[in-house]
Amino acid sequence: MAPANVEQQPQQQVPAATGGRKVVDEVSGWMRVFDDGSVDRTWTGPPEALPLMSPVAPYSTPRDGHTLHDLPGEPNLRVYLPEGHNAGEERRRLPVILQLHGGGFCISHPSWLMYHHFYARLACAVPGVVVSVELPLAPEHRLPAHVDTAIAALRTLRSIATSEEEEGALDDPVAALLREAADVSRVFLVGDSSGGNLVHLVAAEVMAAEENSWAPLRVAGGVPIHPGIVRATRSRSELETKAESVFFTLDMLDKFLAYALPEGATKEHPFTCPMGPQAPPLESVRLPPMLVSVAENDLIRDTNLEYCEALRAAGKEVEVLINRGMSHSFYLNKYAVDMDPTTGERARELIDAIKSFVSRH
After folding, report:
1. Active site annotation includes 64
2. What domains are defined for the chain?
3. Could you tell me the pLDDT band of residue 85, with boundaries at 50, 70 and 90?
4. Active-site annotation holder among 193, 293, 327, 329
């Protein structure tokens, strides 16, 4: 979702109509929906948060121990390569982290600084090849479009590894870099917020396929970070009351999900509640080992923990990391990570936990 711990400020005045269109709904700061079905995602919230949404251009000259490349295709991919894995030298292949960005299925882009600063650091720390997926956005593209796109990204990785096709994106020099550097037998799905939901959904779909149908690609693990797992009914908690000023509210999440879920679906839908009564019994769902990161002060902490307990009860291999004193997606706020010692330490703990998880699987 949005960067954590940014207080709401008076918003800029937004006109009620643009070019003859009328605004029929607005998600505070993030997007306006018009009567013709079009969407404006121009940021209208606190101006100090805007730099976190600025796109970072790719670069082939190493910076801070890595290079950054864009691979256009369906979907578009962004690739972080640790230094030393783009010079054509024979080296040990690296695990792949497929990053599925958050944003309530409705906003954000993997090129934004908020994602860049964390995933560039993660690529170097593991070390691993980080591949960020440009996901479709609702309401123009409702679920399961996001799941289908993530699956398509995995198919692209498999095709690159096996050289099954020789056209389109696979002709790109970045594909050659991936072919040399990436060990697709160790793919780890990592997603934040709504991207955490996708980790579960995509892993389940891949592992439900016939044995060896994805070979040589293998999903070796999943890391949902503060997944957007919710229930249809909830009570207003003390935590929610205290957190109303932060840049993530349950009302905001409710609006996003209303636009993202299939028409007529409630939050008990398996896309948002994989342990609920509408979802397949978790005992019947094949999943890889999971590391679930839960923020102690997250408004959806309780449903995150309920999900972890349901995985355990179903006999799944799951580890839980509690981010003490932190709010939803805290680690994406580069300014807090850089300037606040506690936030910086918790971000380091998260990176260390992912590094350890990858090394053990």
Report:
1. no
2. 17-359 (3.40.50.1820)
3. low
4. 193
